[in-house]
Design goal:
Elements: H1 16-23, H2 29-36, H3 50-61, H4 86-99, E1 107-112, H5 115-134, E2 139-143, H6 148-156, E3 161-164, H7 174-182, E4 189-194, H8 206-213, E5 218-223, H9 227-230, E6 243-244, E7 249-250, E8 254-258, E9 270-275, H10 276-286, H11 309-314, H12 320-347, E10 362-366, H13 370-375, E11 379-383, E12 386-392, H14 399-414
Parallel strand pairs: 2-3, 2-4, 4-5, 5-8
Antiparallel strand pairs: 1-9, 6-7, 8-9, 10-12, 11-12
Helix pairs in contact: 5-6, 5-10, 7-8, 12-14
Length: 415
């Protein structure tokens, strides 16, 4: 042994099994119990069906995930390196584009590394297009109910935030949007609308937003991180449709949906979808800041190298078989949400339980005892000076878990 060997870090402290167990204690029995009781955040802890793991094994047999695959560049353009999953990525986007009512063959998109990455792509496209059309940076309009990433991205893009008031159902107030726009009449308008706000589950009325921005240089990006995964299987699907109304006109410019929320995909990822016409206009402007020589085309994506494994794996979730499974889970999930709400209203009216709309899987109420917050990993927030918590009823949340939660509330009310 030389004098430097003692300085080398030990990769494993004992056997590899011991090493894994020491670092991931929640992967065992106690962890399974804990994830069953997670109620406060939009994570689907149901394990994917066995068919998904068979699909992943098929991909690995072809080498996907076994060495450095890369989805660099635009998935709709020839790639300089053949080890990519662009074919799966394109078909994945086309399949979900059909679900969201984008015209067939007239859309563009990709699978990002997260919902926030998808929001960044949409907001950057809006910023680029509006500046290109008007010569001025837009102001970014959104509500305080929107996900906190919107504030981060607005700052990152060098835009001024304009906070719009909300209605009692947590949706954006179109009249206040009009007032705020009037106060900034010389600036183009970038609106980030939310379909499923983070804490309350509010839905911004996109048609009303379009009525307000009509005639102004405007771009509307929709953040449908959670609701966008399951609303297509419900009567509320039009809330996330790209086209709608009698004239089947576009309702927004781009859409972001998270893959690791409702779908239960095992790794953070996000869908990003826009129309081909919107992307083409953006990419012409994008080409001024990006030289296409190195990879042979202007990529259009902010990220240069992109994960090739995720699109190939998430492709399974767009299969007819899995879409049918998702539809069944949504029906149970929304039924359990109503079950929780009714029980809270009946037995704990003092907690002021509320669900802002029937499309939402979120119920919020006055914050219970701290031990209950900790046991169920409840998200908390101060609303009008009062501490509230919420439950996000995900597919793994069964009625037996809800009953256990209600029993604990009863115990906590006597503590």
């Amino acid at each position: 042994m030389n004098r430097f060997s003692e300085c080398r870090p030990r990769l494993f402290g004992g056997s590899r099994d011991e090493e894994v167990e020491s670092r991931f204690p929640l992967a065992h029995a106690d962890g399974n119990a804990q994830k069953r009781l997670l109620l406060g955040y939009p994570i689907n802890f149901n394990s994917p069906p066995e068919a998904f793991f068979r699909w992943r094994e098929q991909l690995q047999n072809k080498g996907i995930g076994r060495f450095a695959w890369n989805n660099g560049g635009n998935p709709y353009q020839p790639a300089p390196v053949s080890y990519n999953s662009h074919a799966y990525e394109r078909e994945l986007i086309e399949r979900f584009g059909k679900i969201y009512r984008f015209p067939a063959g007239q859309l563009w998109g990709f699978l990002s590394n997260s919902g926030t990455d998808s929001n960044m792509q949409g907001m950057y496209m809006g910023r680029t297009l509006l500046k290109g059309r008007t010569g001025r940076l837009p102001k970014c309009y959104f509500t305080r109910e929107a996900h906190y990433s919107i504030q981060i991205l607005t700052d990152q893009l060098g835009l001024e935030s304009v906070f719009v008031d909300t209605l009692p159902d947590a949706g954006l107030d179109p009249q206040d949007l009009a007032r705020k726009m009037a106060a900034n009449r010389n600036d183009p308008v970038l609106v980030v609308a939310t379909v499923g706000t983070t804490f309350k589950g509010g839905i911004d009325r996109i048609e009303k937003i379009q009525e307000v921005v009509q005639g102004q240089p405007a771009y509307v990006h929709v953040d449908a991180a959670l609701f966008g995964g399951y609303l297509p299987h419900t009567l509320f699907a039009p809330a996330v449709h790209y086209t709608g109304g009698e004239a089947c006109r576009p309702r927004y410019d781009s859409l972001a949906v998270s893959c690791h929320k409702f779908f239960g995909f095992h790794s953070p990822a996000g869908l990003f979808i826009s129309s081909k016409a919107t992307f083409d206009e953006f990419n012409r402007l994008f080409s001024r800041v990006h030289s296409p020589e190195y990879i042979g085309h202007v990529p259009g994506t902010i990220a240069c190298s992109r994960d090739a494994v995720k699109p190939a794996e998430f492709y399974y979730y767009s299969s007819p078989e899995d879409l049918a499974r998702q539809a069944g889970e949504v029906k149970v999930m929304l039924g359990n949400t109503q079950y929780l709400l009714k029980a809270l209203q009946t037995h704990f009216p003092q907690l002021l339980p509320r669900r802002v709309n029937e499309a939402s899987n979120i119920v919020f109420f006055k914050q219970p005892a701290p031990w209950i917050v900790n046991k169920y990993s409840l998200a908390t927030m101060k609303l009008a000076g009062v501490d509230f918590a919420h439950v996000v009823v995900m597919p793994h949340v069964t009625q037996s878990v809800i009953d256990e939660f209600l029993s604990d509330l009863e115990e906590g009310s006597h503590g």
